[in-house]
């Protein structure tokens, strides 16, 4: 069994684990202290879903914990990173050009990039393993 990682493999693993850590942190934060997050739930989300902001926060927290865990475990990495990246787009636009909005822009780009470049080790060719 070969445990040597290429730079590409190491980079994608670090990107995957770093993103999962961010989503898990925010997800658990929303689940454990949802009151702190209620104030940033946009009015359009409440009107669209017809549920209280606290429930939106809890649902979003559960969503981010579940998908963040799947990302950390490498389950459906391309699909999960795509969904998480798309999930952040309305949040990013709602926050606008603030420090948090710009941070979310970086997370969107990182998540979408991972969905485009990730290949499971079983699907890589010998050439890709050496790059």
From TrEMBL:
GO terms for cellular component: membrane. Keywords: Membrane, Transmembrane, Transmembrane helix. The chain crosses the membrane at residues 12-32, 44-63, 75-93. The keyword Glycoprotein does not apply. It is a multi-pass membrane protein. InterPro entries: DoxX (IPR032808). It comes from the Bacteria. This is DoxX family protein. It comes from Candidatus Zambryskibacteria bacterium RIFCSPLOWO2_01_FULL_43_17.
